[in-house]
Amino acid sequence: MHVKPLSRNGVLWLLVLAVLLLSAGCATAPPVNTTAAAAAPAERYIIGPGDSLEIFVRDNPTVTTTVPVRPDGRISIPLVQSIVAAGKTPDQLADGLEKALSRYIRSPMVTVIVKSFVGEYSQQVRVVGQAATPKAVPYRRGMTVLDVMIDVGGLTKFAAGNRAKIVRHMPDGQEQTVPVRLDDLMNGAVKDNMAMHPGDILIIPQSLF
Is the pTM above the cut of 0.85? Predict the structure, then answer.
């Protein structure tokens, strides 16, 4: 069988095609930015007064209990009359309890679970005055005044919401007062919403009339 030889142009196109296939085969995937892909470390929760803690001691149900963190930042469990909890992470408190319990229990294994939390004072937003439920609210990233008002159930009928203010402690130790118009905000004026900072105190005065 007679095979017709390729023309010069045909040979040229074959060479171009071969080069393209070779380039595609040798191409490598773009490098992965491992720094950006790495997950950020999880934030550690710091125990504060008012938190409720479940203290689980393995194989010791008589010592396992649920306790509140007292205003002085301490807790008490069976066999441990008093130990500082506020300012510690659950793991740090568990380590301290294991050391304290080792006087009575051989190789105790303790787990601390935060059942309900408020957080240490520097991580709270406290609401005082004419809120439906004045209380300390755990600070959450991105929290706004409106979020806080939802948490405390809004204003009482005696509140002078437009005379409310936020007392904020600055990093340099100075105290800043920020006025906030809560009546307008609660009536839909989103422009009066603003970001809260951990440690803020929202003061809602009573109406004069």
Answer: no
